[in-house]
Amino acid sequence: MANGLVIAAPRSGSGKTLVTLGLLTALRRRGIVTAPAKTGPDYIDRAHLARAAGTEAINLDPWAMSPDRLRLLAHDHAAAADLLVVEGVMGLFDGAADGTGSTADLAATLKLPVILVVDAEKQGQSIAALVSGFAAFRADVEIAGVIVNRVATTRHEQMLVAALAPLGIPILGVLPRRDSLHLPDRHLGLVMPAEITTFDSVVDSAADVLEQFVDLDRLVALSAPPSSPRSNYPTAFRLQPLGQRIAVGMDDAFCFAYPHLLHDWQNQGAELIPFSPLADEHARMDSDAVYLPGGYPELHGRTLASAANFQASLIAARDRHALIYGECGGYMVLGQSLTDAAGISHRMAGLLPVSTDISRPKRTLGYRRLRHTGPLPWPRELMGHEFHYSTGDSATALFTATDALGVALPPMGAVVGRVMGSYAHVIDVA
Known about the structure:
Layout: E1 3-8, H1 16-29, E2 34-39, H2 43-53, E3 58-60, H3 67-77, E4 83-87, H4 103-110, E5 114-119, H5 126-137, E6 143-151, H6 154-164, E7 171-176, E8 185-186, E9 189-190, H7 199-213, H8 216-221, E10 245-249, H9 259-267, E11 271-275, E12 289-292, H10 301-305, H11 308-319, E13 323-327, H12 329-334, E14 337-339, E15 345-347, E16 355-357, E17 364-372, E18 381-388, E19 391-392, E20 399-402, E21 408-412, E22 414-416, E23 419-422, E24 425-429
Parallel strand pairs: 1-4, 1-5, 2-3, 2-4, 5-6, 6-7, 10-11, 10-12, 12-13, 13-23, 14-16
Antiparallel strand pairs: 8-9, 14-15, 16-19, 17-18, 17-20, 18-24, 20-21, 22-23
Helix pairs in contact: 1-2, 1-7
C-alpha cells in the first residue's frame, strides 16, 4: 500500500491547513495520487482536503475509533493511492479533555512520520527549543521534518535556519509570509469549499509557494508505510445500515456525513439513494430508512420550510414505518420549527417534539460517549461528538451521554416510534 505522513503543528493557527492543501495540489500537479485524511471529527477541513486532492477524504479519529479501525480505514483508503496525507488537528499533542485522541496518538498508532509546520512569526532562535521539545516529547512519535512558516525577511530566515541546524531535523522549506493566503470562516469553522469563490485560486497560490520553497521530493521520501491492520480483524464493519435501501439527504444543507459510515452500510449490502431536500426532492417511496446528516439547515430555513415534496416524503416514510434518523442539522429539520440567526422561525417537518433556535448562538462542542434508547440497529454503546450553536429541548431523549471525561450530560435528542435524532454525530461503536 501507499506510504504516508502526517502534517501537524505545535498549535492551531500555524498554517497547517493551507500547507496541507497546497501540498495536495502540488503533488496532484506532479501526477501523484494522494489519499487525504483529517485527524478527528472535522467535516469541513475534510471537504477542503477532498477538493484540493480531487478525491474523497476521510476522517481518522483516534479518540472515537479503535486502533484496529484506524489501521483498517487508513489501509483501505490508501490502497489505490501513491501517498496517504493526514492533516492533524490543533497542536500535535492536543486531544480531548481526557488527554487522548491527539494527532500524536494517530501518528503513533499508524506509525507515520510527522512533518511539523512551525509558525515563525514574532519568533527567533527560540524556535529551536520549541522544535527540540516537540521532537523529544514522545518516543513513539517521529518528527521527520520541519516546514517553517510565515518568515518575514531573508535575515529572519537565516536566523531561524541557523538555530534549527544543530537539531539535525531536516528543514524541508521556509515559507515567506503571504497575507493573501487566507480562507474565510464562520460559526462552524471554515466555509465549505463550494461556497468560496476564491478557494481554488488561494489553494493554487499555496501550491505555487510550496513548489517554490519546499523540497517536495525530500518530503515524499520521508514518508513511511503505515502499520497494517491485523489479518484476523473482521472485514465486516460494525456500524450496521439503517435499512436495506436508505434515502440519504445530500446537499448544502446536509453535507456532514462521514464517508466511513456510508461505506460501512454499502459494504454490508445496503443501497444508498441520495436526494436533495433543498431542491425539494423526495425521499424515495421504496426506501426503508431515511438518513438526514448534519450540515447548515439554519442557512436555508425558508427553502426547507417550503420544500413540500421533501416534507411530505418524510411523513410518508414515517407512515410506512421506515426508520428516520437525523443528526444535528437533520435532527433540527425533523423538529417542529427552526429559528434562524435573524430570529425568523421556519416550519420544519414536525416529526419530533423539538424546536431549535440559533438566534442566540451558544456553542456546544465536545466528544460524547452515547447510549441509545431507540430502535437504531447499532450497538447500544457508541462514540460521537457534538458541534452546534443552536439550542433545542425535548422530553423524549434518544441518547444518554457523558463527555470525554465521563461526566454525565443531560439526555440528548428525541425519539417517536421509528423517527429519531439528536445533536450527536455518531462516529463509531464504543
